[in-house]
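Entry 12.
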Amino acid sequence: MFKKIKIKFLIPILLLQLVALGVLGFIAHRFSSDLLTTLAEREFNLTIESTRQHIESAIKDRLDKSKALLNNAVFIKFNAAPFYKSDADVTVFNFQKGNGLIFSEPEVGGLVNYPIGLLANEGNRGISSMGLFPSQEYVGSDGMVRQHVYLGGSNDIDFEIASPEKLDRSQAEWFKTAMAGNLFVGRPQEMPLYLRKYDPVEIESEEVEKKENLIVIAMPHKIGDATVGVLMVTTPPDFIYNALPDHESSALIMLVDSNGNMIAESGNLSLEKSIPSFDPARVTASGADSIHEEEDLLVLHEPIDESGWTLSMFAKKSDIYGAVYKLRNNILFIVAISVTIMALCVFFIIGKLLRPIIKLTNASDRMAGGELGLQIDKSSDDEIGRLTESFNKMSTSTKKMHDRLARINFVRKQMLQIISHELKTPLNGIIGFYELMKDEIMKGSSSSMEEFQECFDGLGGSIEKYRMLVERLTKTTSVMTGEMKGIDEVDEPSSLMESLQAAVDEAKRHRSSIELKFDMEDFAATRVAAPFGAVKLIFEEALSNAIKYSPADSPIEIFLSRGDSEAIIEVHDNGTGIPQKYLDEVIEPFFEVADSLYHSSGKYKEGGGGLGLGLTIIGNVLRRCGGKMRIESKEGKGTSLIISLPLA
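Predicted 3D structure (tokens):
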């Protein structure tokens, strides 16, 4: 059977897998290259985009600061009146210091700056850091420098001598571009910074021209529609080199200016040599913002706003699309391997899936043979695991039902034994008094009426005990069958305090030490959704249990509280308590912790035991009324019976 089931499962699943894998192979072959191409191009694009954003952000920051300097009113005044030069120098000095220019103590023979203004800078300071703007020049419309600051200092002798060779900027590209009204951002080039050697003795020291690799930023100074001058500042190109990827890469990243001149490059520098027709100028003429192909290369150009620069990225198609080509070549091999592996997996899985079913079949046969309560180990959490759980629950339930039926059979036999024992006592009294009276009458006894009255009283007491026992058994039967005969005639809400008071009054005839641990006036209007007779019966049985199983001199305490939808009554005694192992069994009919033959029909007889029906009666009445019962007990310290009744 096992082999037949496995074949029935295996063949359809394998056929479905072959079809599914064939379709999957076609889809992979058709669309995977597009997906991988998109991912590769996205990574290609992200690399250059990140670099572009860093460079563009740095340039914009420098341009914004330069524009803010040019918009300072001091340059308007200086353009109109040259004697404002000192104010312009001080403004630029503060601008340079605010953007990272840091001075140091001078060393003899070392380079220091010139003084500036009257008190702003006395000069003769060493340079620890050039900052973002090492030099600044303001050039008039005639191309001559009218004001300059180099590293926080200015040599005013330049303007006294007015040397054309040093101050003429009329042929500079940046000057021409700015005078035409355009912004100019150049590529890094060597720019002069004018300092002097420090000599603490000589007042006039030798001027030194120091060359630094800097970027020129020039912008027109306009008053109205007229361009009256040009502001030129320089900035170090470090931000470019920091933005370019410094790790090993298969791509080449290049930054060029508007004339196609190389500014910087990074990545696979050997790639430049492998391109036969490489010309940096072509990047300004090629398409921008989209990847395109040039021979066996992938190329992407990204313009950098305001600077006129272009960031270009080159990579071999084989490096970028290598994974795509490899996948296309291996797709059939992958499908073949997949079919083989899936066939083996299916064979193994089917065997594993069917194994628990065979176990269930064998276990069912064993249960049918009488081995109740049999349990099977759960091997998974799927449907078969749930089936195993259901089988185990069914097996356990069947065992419990069998045990309960055995318990009922045992209780039936025990009940007959108890009833015969309980009926025997009053019946013996009736027979004894009957024989005594018969003998007295037959012998013509001269017994007094008091003696006959005593016999009649004894006979009546025995008959009353007999009646009470029969009545209690009848009431228990009606409660357990749900008929509640003789307990209540009208099924309607009742006063909680009236039922409790009636039960307490009856119980106090047998035990006076019953204490109510609550204010009766607080609960005078409390009504519960249960008839008077049923509630009174619950309290009678609860007090009966407490009296029988606690010493005569110990108090029985009743606590009462009210929740949102229920009244909670707790009857507490200080008796012997119930062992923990019996707490679930005491509600069973005829169950008692003491010897089952030690019974008494006396409902409130201390230590006399009973029929073992009290808690059974309470539980059945509560179920009918929608109430609940809970038992808390510690052996040797007493028991609390906690009853909940729904409020009306």
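Annotation: The domain at 72-240 is CATH 3.30.450.20 (Beta-Lactamase). DSSP finds 15 helices and 21 strands in the chain.
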